[in-house]
Specification:
Blueprint: H1 2-23, E1 32-35, H2 41-44, H3 49-52, H4 62-73, E2 83-86
Parallel strand pairs: 1-2
């Protein structure tokens, strides 16, 4: 299942890149925000045993990801924030 999950994440990145190219002159900005594990009900439904192993590391809170969104949308018009990768500091690579 990890291959399907990883493939879908790559698809989102590829679509984001295409949208960014196609809409660059329109003023629309496209940002791909890629969070690591976030403390939400979705995390508990994961079938990835490695992701569910208790590592003692603190996972992200939804507010951590929200701050990344606010950062991206509050930049000046001439700035493009294309990607933001937000992961817990102690999360395994």
């Amino acid at each position: 299942m990890l291959g399907i999950y990883s493939g879908s994440k790559f698809f989102v990145e590829a679509v984001s890149q295409a949208l960014r190219s196609e809409t660059a002159s329109s003023g629309l900005r496209v940002t791909c925000i890629q969070p690591g594990n976030v403390e939400t009900p979705l995390l508990a439904t994961s079938t990835d045993k490695d992701a569910l192993k208790p590592s003692g590391a603190k996972v992200l809170e939804p507010a951590d990801v929200a701050r990344a969104v606010v950062y991206a949308v509050t930049q000046p018009d001439w700035c493009a924030v294309n990607e933001i990768l937000v992961e817990p500091r102690q999360e395994p690579a």
